[in-house]
Amino acid sequence: MSAPFISQIDQKKLSLLTKINRMMVPWEGPFYVTGTLQLVAINQKILITNTESPLATGYYFCNVYALSKEVDLPAGALARVDANLMTKNGYSNWTTKEIGIKFAQGTGPTSNKFGMTTYSVLPMTNIVGQSVSAPALPAGDLTGVQFAYSYVL
Fold first, then answer.
1. Span 48-80, pLDDT tens digits
2. Are strands 58-72 and 78-81 parallel, antiparallel or unpaired?
3. Is the pTM of this model over 0.85?
4. Residue 140: partners with Cβ closer than 8 Å, 6 or more residues away
5. Phi first, then psi: what are they for 76, rounded to 5°?
6. What does the DSSP assignment read for 72-93?
7. Can you tell me the distance from the alpha carbon of 136 to that of 142, in angstroms, rounded to the nearest whole number?
8. Cis preceding-peptide flag for 74 (omega within 30 of 0)
């Protein structure tokens, strides 16, 4: 039997240090920006289980939507997503169905950009081509959802 990598006490210490760090670091924000929703893949064969949808477990052909937004940051700023402040979160990776926000920051000689993306999967037909009626996964329609982010200089 192996010991866990991080003990319960270590996890509590790490949590406390994270809270202290957030109090001491002067984060600007949170800021909210509305993402743009667009269709990125049509008729993707995806396994859906009855624990994530009212549909029976099986393969469905789905349309995949991406909600994304890119913002300009002040020079030298470092950003983070405040996913816990968002009204809905999609998938950070729709093929693995990991819930969250995919983000990246890019800096250049004259810019500092922060991009955020989350995905939803809308079942259209079952494996034999019959239309299905189900909400987008994992959290329904992402139209109008705002990303929450903060940054530190």
1. 999 989 999 999 999 999 999 999 999 989 999
2. unpaired
3. no
4. 88, 120
5. 85, 0
6. E--TT-EEEE-GGGSS---EEE
7. 8
8. no
